[in-house]
Amino acid sequence: MREFVKSVADFSWALSALAVSQPAKVLNAWPTRAPTRAATGSFEASTTAIEAQLDPVTHSLYNTGKTVQNAVIDLTFNFFSPHTFNPMTVVDTTQNVLRWSAGIATQFIPGGQIGNGGPPVGWGPVKTEDAEFLRF
Amino acid sequence: MASPEAASQAQSSQEVLRVLKQATYFVIFAVPNPSSLSVGRPLLPFIPQLIYGIDVTEVPHRFSSSALPPTAEKGFRVHKTIGTKQIAKQQFKLLLMPNNFEAGPGRTPPPTVLLPFLVQRFWMHDGHFDFLDDQDAGLRLVAAGRFFPAPSGLGVYAGAVAEVIEGLGQLQGLRGNVVINGITTPPDQFANLFTFRVVDPEGKLQGTPLPPVEAEEPDPDYTYSSVLNLMAEVHPDDPIVVAPLPNSSKQQVHLLERLRLVNTNLDVGPGYLKADNVESEVVGERRTTFVFNPNDSLDTIPLYSTNSEFTFFTGSRQPIGTLQVDLCEGRAFRTSSPDLSHPYFRIAGYGFYGKGTGQFKDIEGMLTMNGALSLTPGVTSSMYTLRILDPHGHFRALWS
């Protein structure tokens, strides 16, 4: 039990030390083109070592969390990119969202005749409802 | 060419069939352009996965397909070659649309987000297909189709029917259709098979035996598909029967078609654009019922098929298998010819495999059909393309 407690404490202490050491790495590498590369490598190596200790069930859970977490991070970085706040992008996005919302809303209007593009010109939906009583 | 007097007389089936067969088929395989990938149009710029449209750029390659006559022991054995040679440049704009949207040229559907686990319709416009023949041969197209969920890891199936709205260069003035039998992981990964049918009364797009296709290695078709092309005509012993559909303005067109193997090849180069399609023995039949309104006032008419089944056999009528597959979406395009006293219909569509037996048991993939149908008299001439996902090579032949 003593060794187990020690190993848990060591693990916790190592994680803290790792976290403290990485900002220094970033600062040291600041003049270079990729100041975060060394720190990223350290975190990835540590993560890979921990992943190797996971059993299949926990690994699956970990992967799900990682996917969601990465999506949220990508979303956040994408949102704060300069392109998002370009006036043309804002106008286009607003128009798209309004038209998308209107399109969704018209789907709930009975009859399906509103917002459906207009009278048929031959490229509309192929209605196969009458096929049912033709089946062999 | 028949005189107007002759055309005004009742025409025989053989005479009409001769006119319907005056068409050239191109079968082409398209893959992504690594230097200019297709680009998705996101609804929100900071969520690139949430796309409602795709600006598609494809690289059509030279393509050939061939098949050995089927045997009772091995069934069909087919071979396809996607060439190293790029034969055209292709671009179009694809927009997802609500399922009830009446698409058409000049109509923009409301943004509809792509959900790859659902069946969704799309509209394609500004389609440019420019052949690299140094003489500006090209086609301008519009199309409607659907995405369908595909087996895990392969993204979605894309089935579509396209109409040629303008021909350029040596294709100027020619009418035709294209069917798309594709698999894609939107927006930029795809392996798309196109079957063009161009009305070609003078046969100017048909060539003598073309040089073999130099295969690209590795095979750019990441879906490991096999391709079986079949030419169909109405069975001479089983005439077309047209009957009204109860409680509807549509008609049921019952027909039994006879199927022949066809090997396809195509080449494009400076000053030429030629297809060499060679029909061989009868390998099966297809019973089907087309449902559409041939008296529709529009020239483009929605169509589907029902009760459709392929029956395949060897030259000595030993069974190979059967396959039920309907055209879930098709279009009929009313077309006139100076050689015919009545209009006929160019017909194109696609559908998914249902129940199969023998070699076709449990196969996955999609059928496309591109052809022509006359109702007066009842005659068809069509090409069916069965694209079969074949990772284990049940249909593939080992020959080069």
How would you summarize what this structure contains?
Chain A has 136 residues and is mainly α.
3D architecture notes:
The complex is a heterodimer of chains A (136) and B (400). Chain A is mainly alpha-helical. Chain A is built from 4 helices and no strands. Chain A folds into 2 domains: 1-53; 55-97. Helix content of chain A is 64%, strand content 0%. In chain A, helix 1 runs antiparallel to helix 2 (37-51). The longest helix of chain A is centred in the first third of the chain and has 27 residues, at 2-28. Chain A is elongated. In chain B, the strands form 3 sheets. In chain B, strands 11, 12, 13, 16, 17, 18, 19, 20, 21 and 22 form a 10-stranded antiparallel sheet that branches. In chain B, strands 1-3-5-6-7-8-9-10 form an 8-stranded antiparallel beta barrel. A two-stranded antiparallel ribbon of chain B has the order 14-15. Helices cover 3% and strands 57% of the residues of chain B. In chain B, strand 6 and strand 7 form a beta hairpin. Chain B has helices at 4-8, 13-20; strands spanning 23-32, 39-42, 51-71, 75-86, 88-97, 120-131, 138-149, 156-168, 176-185, 189-199, 225-234, 241-244, 251-263, 266-269, 272-275, 278-292, 300-313, 319-325, 329-335, 344-356, 364-375, 378-389. Mean pLDDT of chain B is 93; it is low at 1-8. The chains are: A mainly alpha (136), B mainly beta (400).
Domain module tally of chain B: 1
Approximate helicity band of chain A: 55-70%
- Averaging pLDDT over every residue of chain A, what do you get? 87
Share in helix of chain B: under 10%
Oligomer: heterodimer
Q: What share of residues are in beta strands of chain B?
A: over 45%
Cα(first) to Cα(last) distance of chain A is 73 Å
What is the average of the pLDDT values of chain B? 93
Percent strand of chain A:
under 5%
Q: What does the main sheet of chain A amount to?
A: none
Q: How far apart are the termini of chain B? A: 41 Å
Give the helix/strand class of chain A. Answer: mainly alpha
Q: Could you say how many structural domains of chain A there are in total?
A: 2
How many helices of chain A? The count is 4
Number of strands of chain A: 0
- Topology order of chain B in helix (H) and strand (E) letters: HHEEEEEEEEEEEEEEEEEEEEEE
Q: Cα-atom Rg of chain B, whole angstroms?
A: 20 Å
Unreliable sequence segments of chain A:
none
Please work out how many helical segments of chain B DSSP would assign.
2
* General form of chain A: elongated
Please identify the structural class of chain B as seen in this structure. mainly beta
